[in-house]
Amino acid sequence: MRPRLDPHRLQALVIGASAGGIDALMHVLPALPADCPIPVVVVVHLPENQPSLLPEVFGPRVDLEVKEADEKEPVEPGTIYFAPPGYHLLIERDRTFSLSVEAPVHYSRPAIDILFETAAAAYGPTLAAMLLTGANEDGAAGLAHVARLGGTVLIQDPDEARIATMPLAGLRAVGDQATVLPLASLALMLRALRTKESR
């Protein structure tokens, strides 16, 4: 049976990617339906000293609002948020964003681990976390935290990842708690995230 995400149980999706991540996200984010009932929060490793332009890149390609997350902003459904360059992105327990300039994690700020760990604390078993291609181990500890708190763990198939280091680290961290799929199958899962009325 094909794995699926239950839109009536799920309350948030977090995604992490590094090297090759923009191309990977081009496969999965446009699959999200216009009536997606949850927020999607994304960390991509980018240079700190220049604008990311990710909202401008993805905005015309998806059916949801796309923006950079901002300090104290509520995490709203039906929106794709990108972490701004140079800041760790955290989700507080009251489900608002906060930004931090604490030290990089795995040489990265924003760090995937910090988003995943704080999102897991805020959403518990109603969170899904997806780890895509990348060249370091950021995200693996965060995935393990999501799994410990009962969330859903999704990993891009390392065999098709542009750089397999990150998905392989995620697999080592969570083992058989992860659902491992190619991008095309991950996109199909996201396409099914619709509000109850339209299903």
UniProtKB/TrEMBL annotation:
It catalyses: [protein]-L-glutamate 5-O-methyl ester + H2O = L-glutamyl-[protein] + methanol + H(+). Keywords: Chemotaxis, Hydrolase. The active site is at 18, 45, 138. The keyword Hydrolase applies. Residues 7-173 form the CheB-type methylesterase domain. One of its GO terms (molecular function) is phosphorelay response regulator activity. Gene3D superfamilies: Methylesterase CheB, C-terminal domain (3.40.50.180). Its EC number is 3.1.1.61. The keyword Membrane does not apply. GO terms for biological process: chemotaxis. GO terms for cellular component: cytoplasm. This is protein-glutamate methylesterase. It comes from Chitiniphilus eburneus. The lineage of its organism: Bacteria, Pseudomonadati, Pseudomonadota, Betaproteobacteria, Neisseriales.
